[in-house]
Design goal:
Number of helices: 21
Strand content: under 5%
């Protein structure tokens, strides 16, 4: 154990205010308790006020926690949401008194978390729009997830639920590699260590002193328990995504998260929430297919257009990514799995940075007011209603339209750096880069296509359309 150390300038713990936020045990515990109390109260409020008039429960979970805090912190400081998550906070205590069994191998599968995230949330979200945002449904959903988490914490050791089952943990583990922070240790302090206090303090059975050597933080949730055990632990500022510029521990599940989340959120919203609002909506295949199915099996409560838009987006993104990676593997003369696990990390920015632009735009046009008014309702505050910070028609909001192109450029740069990790002739690296960039280039094409459609055909006058019962509109100029 080290009590004091000389910290480098890029170590966050060398900055007093950030040291308090990220390392002070009392401060962290206060934040965890506040988040837990807010979580419990929002769930209770959902059962007590189950109708849509309850805007507090909805905006705590789907406004404050996701996406505002989640996306904003994940791309900056990393996986700190997991460090204050109510499940993880209580799970550590449950695990201490639990059975501490080894989780069965069939449950040690991050694809369970991916399935829950992609199908259990986004598939339902597009098929039954708004269903999960009904206060009662939201409350029930989080009670079920909480009970599932607590049972697994009690049964299994090493916080296995967070590692393999939790859909949020699955997402945050993958995207933390884009952030500009990294947890590690000072090598000179660890060289003579014989107690390994940082590892002993870790509820996830991780070894922080190995993070730098592996260029990977494994399943670290940034709970900061190890920093309280030993001063040799550091939390450094690094260039965004720089850990991906060199060899690092990879995981195929991470790449599937990048592909499927980009398809489920970025691409599907482009299909369903944007193109469906344009004057070409009736010619879109997912709209036509939805209309056809609805004519045979009328389903008033199901948004078939949204469901098929989701299916189309997932299938298209998956097909393009796999074909591109397969071509790169043939060019590099490497196993497909090896190339997939390495070059696939270039897809990470497609959602997280594009999502950041959408987050900022929504914050000014609705999220800020929605969260504020939700808290006014939830705590019966005698204050005036919170107004939106901006209108959707404000021209300055167009600045956030640049974020998709930043995501594309960063993705291409990550791909360039990772292709160069393969020791093959330069010409092969060039062609492998072109092949593996297919998904990124598709997102570039789609971003430009959206601009073309909006300018050439225009938007529907009736506004946001997510359902099947829309009227036919003529194309611009017809």
């Amino acid at each position: 154990m080290v009590n004091n150390t000389n910290r480098e300038k890029n170590d966050i713990f060398s900055i007093p205010i950030l040291k308090t936020i990220f390392r002070n045990k009392v401060f962290i515990r206060v934040v965890q308790v506040i988040v837990l109390a807010l979580f419990v109260y929002a769930v209770y409020f959902g059962f007590e006020n189950p109708t849509k008039e309850n805007i507090f429960t909805k905006n705590v979970f789907w406004g404050l926690f996701w996406s505002f805090f989640m996306v904003l912190t994940l791309i900056t400081f990393g996986r700190i949401f997991c460090g204050i998550c109510p499940h993880g906070f209580l799970g550590k205590y449950i695990t201490k008194f639990g059975l501490k069994k080894e989780m069965p191998s069939f449950l040690k599968n991050r694809y369970i978390g991916i399935f829950i995230l992609v199908i259990g949330w986004w598939g339902i979200y597009y098929t039954f729009p708004g269903a999960l945002k009904i206060p009662l449904a939201t409350a029930i959903m989080f009670v079920v997830l909480t009970l599932l988490a607590f049972v697994m914490y009690y049964l299994y050791k090493d916080m296995s639920y967070c590692k393999y089952i939790c859909p949020i943990g699955t997402l945050t583990k993958a995207y933390q590699k884009i952030s500009f922070t990294k947890l590690g240790t000072y090598k000179e302090d660890c060289s003579t260590c014989k107690t390994f206090d940082c590892a002993t303090a870790c509820s996830y059975n991780l070894k922080p002193f190995t993070f730098d050597k592996k260029n990977s933080m494994d399943d670290c949730t940034l709970c900061m328990d190890c920093t309280d055990a030993c001063a040799a632990v550091n939390f450094k500022l690094i260039p965004p995504a720089s850990s991906l510029f060199k060899k690092t521990k990879t995981d195929k599940a991470d790449v599937w998260v990048f592909i499927l989340v980009a398809a489920s959120i970025t691409l599907t919203m482009g299909f369903h929430h944007f193109l469906n609002r344009t004057n070409i909506s009736d010619s879109l295949p997912w709209v036509q297919l939805g209309q056809y199915v609805n004519s045979i099996y009328p389903m008033q409560s199901v948004d078939l257009s949204g469901m098929f838009a989701f299916i189309f987006a997932v299938c298209i993104a998956t097909f393009i990514a796999l074909i591109g990676i397969w071509g790169a593997s043939k060019i590099l003369n490497q196993k497909f799995s090896t190339v997939f696990s390495s070059l696939g990390y270039a897809y990470a920015p497609l959602f997280i940075i594009t999502g950041l632009g959408h987050l900022f735009h929504s914050f000014f046009t609705k999220t800020y007011a929605n969260i504020g008014n939700g808290f006014i309702q939830g705590f019966s505050l005698n204050v005036e209603k919170v107004e939106h910070l901006a209108s959707r028609n404000d021209s300055w909001l167009h600045i956030f339209n640049v974020f998709p192109y930043i995501a594309i450029l960063l993705g291409l740069y990550i791909l360039y750096r990772r292709v160069n990790l393969f020791k093959v002739p330069k010409v092969k690296r060039v062609f492998a880069f072109l092949s593996a960039s297919s998904l990124i280039l598709f997102f570039l094409w789609f971003s430009l296509f959206r601009i073309y459609v909006s300018e050439e055909y225009g938007m529907k006058k009736r506004g946001h359309n997510t359902h099947m019962n829309h009227k036919n509109m003529n194309h611009k100029g017809n």
